[in-house]
Design goal:
There is one protein chain. By secondary structure, this protein is α/β, with parallel strands linked by helices. It contains nine helices and six strands. The strands form two sheets. A four-stranded mixed beta sheet has the order 1-5-4-6. Strands 2-3 form a two-stranded antiparallel ribbon. The radius of gyration is 18 Å and the shape is globular.
C-alpha cells in the first residue's frame, strides 16, 4: 500500500462533519447500552471524570448545540469561572446533569443527538468563519467556530468513546470509512503542526500509512494509541510529542 502524503490530507469538510458526527453519536450510544451499573463510576483518562461525568459532558455539549437558550446559559455560567472556558463549560455541563441516572443520560443523548447535528449543519459559512480564542494545555490558539463545531466536537466524542471502551473493557468498534477518516484528519493536522519529515504507520482498522516529506523518523503504532498520545492521554517521544487538540 502506498503511503499517503500527510501534508495534503484535507481537513474534514462541513458536509463530512455532519455524517461523521451523527455516526459517532450512534456508536457512543451503542457502547453505553452495553455498560453495567458499576461501569458508570469507573475512572477515565480524564482525571476529574468518571464514565458518568464524561457522558454528562458529551450530553451537555450536544444540548448546547441544539438549543440557543442552553448554549447561552452554559456560556454565561462559564464566563464567571476562573478556569479556562473549555474546562468551565465541562464543569457546568456535568454539574447541571449530576442528578441524572445512566438511563436518563442515554435517553436524553439519543433524543438530542439528531437535533445537535441538525443545528451544527445549518450554521452558515460566515458564522462558521468567526474566530475565537481558546486556551489549551499547550497554549492559546485562535480557532474558527467551524473548526470547533465540525472537527473538535466530533473528535471529542470519538475520543471519549475510546476512553469509555478502555476503562470498561468493551469492544471498540472501528471501521476504515468512519474512524479511519477521523484518524487521517488528526494525522494531517499533526503533520501540519510539526512541519517535519517523518513516516507514520498506523495499525488497525482505523490506520494507514502516511509520509511527510522524506528522510525523517519512522513511527509504527496502533492508530488509536497514536490518537491517545497526540491528545495528551499517553506520553510520546520526538514528533509524537506534538499535540493535536481533541
Amino acid at each position: 500500500m502506498q503511503a499517503a502524503d500527510a501534508t495534503t490530507i484535507p481537513p474534514v469538510s462541513h458536509r463530512e462533519a455532519a455524517a461523521l458526527g451523527a455516526t459517532e453519536y450512534e456508536r457512543l450510544l451503542e457502547l453505553l447500552r452495553t455498560l453495567e451499573p458499576q461501569d458508570w463510576s469507573r475512572a477515565t483518562d480524564c482525571p476529574e471524570w468518571d464514565v458518568r461525568a464524561m457522558v454528562a459532558h458529551v450530553l451537555g455539549a450536544a444540548e448546547a448545540h441544539a438549543s440557543v437558550r442552553e448554549n447561552l446559559h452554559q456560556q454565561r455560567v462559564a464566563a464567571r469561572s476562573d478556569r479556562p472556558l473549555v474546562d468551565a463549560l465541562g464543569d457546568i455541563q456535568i454539574a447541571d446533569r449530576s442528578g441524572l441516572a445512566a438511563d436518563a443520560l442515554m435517553t436524553r443523548l439519543a433524543e438530542v443527538a439528531p437535533r445537535s447535528m441538525r443545528a451544527r449543519r445549518r450554521i452558515p459559512a460566515p458564522v462558521r468563519a468567526i474566530r475565537m480564542k481558546v486556551e489549551l494545555p499547550f497554549g492559546t490558539e485562535r480557532w474558527r467556530l467551524g473548526y470547533l463545531l465540525d472537527t473538535i466536537y466530533t473528535r471529542d466524542t470519538w475520543m471519549h468513546r475510546v476512553d469509555i471502551a478502555r476503562v470498561t473493557g468493551r469492544e471498540l468498534v472501528l471501521t476504515a470509512d468512519h474512524d479511519g477518516r477521523i484518524v487521517a484528519d488528526v494525522v494531517g493536522e499533526w503533520a501540519r503542526r510539526h512541519g517535519r519529515p517523518c513516516a507514520l504507520v498506523l495499525e488497525g482498522p482505523a490506520g494507514g500509512e502516511f509520509v511527510s516529506k522524506t528522510d525523517g523518523p519512522r513511527y509504527v503504532l496502533d492508530a488509536v494509541e497514536y490518537c491517545r498520545i497526540v491528545s495528551g492521554r499517553a506520553g510520546g517521544d520526538g514528533l509524537l510529542a506534538t499535540p493535536v487538540p481533541f
